[in-house]
Amino acid sequence: MSILTKTILQRLLIGIAMLAVISVVIFLAVDLLPGDIARAMLGNAASNEALDAMRAKLGLDQPAIIRFLDWAGGVLHGDFGVSLATREPVSETISTRLYNTLFLAGMAASIAVPISLLLGIGAALWRDSKFDRIASLLTLGAISVPEFFVAYSLVALFAIYFPIFPPIATLPQGAGFMDRIDVLILPALTLSFCVIAHMMRTIRAALIDVLDSPYMAMAEMKGIPMRRRVLRHALPNAMAPIINSIVLNLAYLIVGVVVVEVIFVYPGLGQVLIDSVAKRDLPLVQAACLIFAALYLFLNTVADVLAIAFNPRLRFPR
Amino acid sequence: MRPSESDAALLRIEDLRIEVDKEGTWSEILHGVSVALKRGEILGVIGESGAGKSTIGLAALGYTRNGGRFSGGKVFLDGVEMLSAPTAILEKMRGTRVAYVAQSAASHFNPAHTIGAQFAEVLRLRTGMKKQDIARKAADLYAELGLPDPETIGNRYPHQLSGGQLQRAMIAMAMATDPDLLVFDEPTTALDVTTQLDVLGCVKRVLDRAGAAALYISHDLALVAQLADRIMVMRNGDMVETGATREMLANPRQTYTRELLEGLQTQRDAVFVPEPDTQPLLRLDHLSASYSGSEKVLDDVTVHVHRGETVAIVGESGSGKSTLTRSICGLLPPMAGEMLFDDAVLPPRLDRRQPDTLKRIQLVHQLPDLALNSAQRIGTIIGRPLKVFQGLTGRAQAQRVTELLEMLELPASYARRYPAQLSGGEKQRVAIARALAADPALLICDEVTSALDQLVAAGVLRILRRLKQELSLGMIFITHDMATVREIADTVIVMRQGKVVNRGSVHDVLNDPDEPYTRELVAAAPEMDPDWITRVRPNFNNRRRTGT
Questions:
Q1: CA geometry: angle B494, B500, B503, nearest 5 deg
Q2: How many CB atoms lie within 10 A of CB B66?
Q3: Residue A310: its chain B contacts at CB < 8 A?
């Protein structure tokens, strides 16, 4: 068995175990929260009898372990249950929301990744130059400012002062692809701000590490032109850390969108999570958390697999 | 040597000055050196580290290390001035006319590409040579250099080759474009003695065949003497003297050159012979150890060390000599065998040992740069074991630090310095002082001089000899260098692949080895005689030196 397949299989097994643990933890955490969905639905004025009736109707009178096993059994059969609040199937709510979230993350990534690559490679090649310093200063500045501040500043600037883009990201019925992009420019920019700095700095550091190595000096002493030295000699060796950083930031883009979705009133997975926690809508919370966790694990595995693929030492052990 | 061209200088370096950036200010490290090299000539460049020999070698390619710059002078390679040449010309010259062979091939090969791809790169870039022809040429060179599987070894990645193989592959890569000049920068320093001998032979053979000129840089005069037509001695960025090899060895004009030559002559006290019926300080009987649990790295090793005795453990990399120190120090508990220290059983695991036992066995590491905390002052570094093992603090501790520094012939003022402010030899002496601070009975020295220059190493060895007698220490001295063994050892144990293959007093083992592997090791240690290599490897024909 090659190292790659072995790693993938290993990660798959670990991933499943992790997801099982995560779902237990989430279940317990939500169970421990004060209040319940019956109270959330009927309000504070509801009588105890009404609350009990509601709980019985929702199956909340069962012990936690039974409810968990019930839910887990459903999940194993591909059924995430129905939302306690809306009675709609969870999978339906989640799938449109997931698409929305992935779309936003994808858009942010397609802005952030090329910019960070350019800035990071440039900063490494022209180390300690003006370019390097300015790029470092700007990206560090961007990362030090909280997300909501960036978001509101962008809104103030590009939606109110210069009304180019809409201030909120609600999708009208039957919105087309271009409408979606137009609406999502500001949220995507906000997200990019947060990840560019980190990606750019890891790319810079990884590349500098490689550029300083003796084999780069050797390439220069072999008379290899600069372009080829960077592309053929430096980049393949810097690839593993660069990919690692990019993929982990992608994971952040997906998982870390909550604040941005709330600010821009964007119907993504993060908002679902917040709403359902507020309502103690357990099936929705569980499903959203599991998806976040699964995505995170998946992207981590992708990062590890790519790191192996780019490293001959790991691909061809002695 | 081609006679018609022999007068024209291939390389002419004129009054070359190079500066490096030291924390913001430029300081000169090469102070106006001039060298000329004829076609086909081999010039040996020797000197200690920091003498500027690598700097001058790189300058022949118009290259300075990061943080360096040319501040004066000219470098002509076959008429082209390398320092002012435009990038395109410079790259072409570097690719085709002059090539560099680095000390550490392992770090100078790109880990992401195969050996063959790196061989082919310049040829593909600079000549119209076809892929099959390049592969043919590579395989021929690999075969000439004695690499295994010459047809397929090019498909391997650098990490799949051993150090000696990589060094040969690097020589092959340098020869790829048939350059007029090769710069060898300590190409054998990182290798085992027997491997060094083979690689040296390879260098000689390809240079002879190709008729290429070479700068051969080394700190080892005896090695350079085997190859070079002429030798240039450098010190502190200046040329000390230059002359034909035999003449310089026979009749060195400058004091420094004489010192270098004499540094290798042994001048030592009587060899310690333990009283037959005394108990050894350390007794390792039939020790076996393994990292994996199955493959034995130590196999039935027996070592006895008496007080006042230095036992040298000799062997090449992979022989298990460092593993032995790990077992003695409790880092790798042996699978089998017995360890007795001072007539008491030595617990195999570090965490089972009493503080007093820990204190009495001290280790000095090969690389002081790694072993000394660069963020602490020397006084703190030496003071720590004084506090832990002797309970000394304040004035008493400072007093003892001073004594220890003086014992190692270092000024007391060094206590306030940081390791970075010391030279390599001084740092190693600090590391020894730290070991002695614990007041040990047994001192284990793991290749403590192999990273040091010859004269500096000789100084450290002299101090160790003196201390061993004054303090009546038992000493285990791990080394791969036979000259060092001759200087320091009373008893020699030769190890190979985890087994002891030979043991005896230093005289018996070195002067009259009856065991074949020991004989090979002893024979591979270079002697200060230009004919030595032809004597030990008669098939290296000496056409160059005798034919011209």
A1: 55
A2: 10
A3: 112
User: Which residue in chain A has the smallest CA separation from B88?
Assistant: A225
Q: Which residue of A has its CA nearest to B59?
A: A221
Q: What is the mean pLDDT of chain A?
A: 85
ipTM comes to 0.76
- Angstrom distance (rounded) from CA B543 to CA B548: 8
How far CA B498 is from CA of B283, B313, B317, B473, in Å, comes to 18, 12, 10, 26
pLDDT in tens, B154-200: 999 998 888 888 999 999 999 999 999 999 998 887 777 888 888 88
Chain A residue numbers touching B92 (CB-CB < 8 A): 223
Chain A closest-CA separation from residue B241 CA (Å): 28
Interchain pair B121, A212: CB under 8 A: no
Is residue B99 less than 8 Å (CB to CB) from chain A? yes
Tokens of A246: 């990019």
What tens digit of pLDDT does each residue of A57-72 get?
777 777 778 888 888 8
Q: Please tell me the predicted confidence (pLDDT) of residue B548.
A: 36
Distance in angstroms (rounded) separating the CA atoms of residues B188 and B168: 10
| CA pair distance A55, A40, nearest whole angstrom | 11
CB proximity list for B227: less than 8 A, separation 6 or greater: B42, B44, B200, B203, B204, B207, B214, B216
Dihedral angle sign, alpha carbons of residues A79, A83, A88, A93: negative
Choose the mutation target among B58, B92, B110, B170 for the interface with A, i.e. most A CBs under 10 Å.
B110
- Cβ atoms B407, B436 nearer than 8 A: yes
Total Cβ atoms within 10 A of residue B109: 24
Q: What is the distance, to the nearest Å, from the Cα of residue A140 to the centroid of all Cα atoms in its chain?
A: 21
| Confidence (pLDDT) at B145 | 85
Q: DSSP 3-state assignment of A32? A: helix
Q: Which residues of B68-80 are buried (b: 16+ CB within 10 A; e: fewer)?
A: bebeebebbbbee
**What is the spatial distance between Cα B315 and Cα B107, in angstroms, rounded to a whole number?**
24
**What is the rounded average pLDDT of the residues B229-255?**
89
Pairing assessment for the beta strands B42-46 and B282-290 based on DSSP bridges: unpaired
The number of beta carbons lying within 10 Å of the beta carbon of residue A91 is: 15
Nearest to A221 among B63, B109, B112 (CB): B63
All residues of chain A having their beta carbon less than 8 Å from the beta carbon of residue B157 are 312-313, 316
The pTM for the full model equals 0.77
Residue A44 has what pLDDT? 73
**Rounded Cα–Cα distance for residues B167 and B393 (Å):** 50
Residues in chain B with CB shorter than 8 Å from the CB of A215 are 107-111
CA–CA gap between residue B384 and residue B190 (Å, rounded) = 33
Distance CA B139, CA B151 (A): 5
Categorize the per-residue pLDDT at B153 as very low, low, confident or very high, splitting at 50, 70 and 90: very high
Which helix (H) or strand (E) is B504 found in, with range?
Answer: strand B499-505
Q: How far apart are CA A245 and CA A252, in angstroms?
A: 11
Rg over alpha carbons for chain A, rounded to the nearest Å, is 24
Q: How far is residue A88 from each of residues A82, A274, A275, A281, B22, measured CA to CA in Å?
A: 5, 17, 15, 12, 71
Amino acid B56: pLDDT: 93
Query: What residue has token string 């070592």?
Result: B303
Dist CA B497 CA B500 (whole Å): 8
Q: Do B108 and A218 touch (CB under 8 A)?
A: yes
Determine, for residues A222 and B104 on separate chains, whether the beta-carbon distance falls below 8 Å: no
Q: What share of chain A is helix, strand, coil (3-state, %, to 5)?
A: 80, 0, 20
What are the tens digits of pLDDT across the range A236-257?
A: 999 888 888 888 888 888 877 7
Cβ neighbors of B187 (< 8 A, separation 6 or more) are B101, B102, B103, B105, B167, B170, B171, B199, B203
Q: Chain B residues with CB inside 8 Å of A212's CB?
A: 66
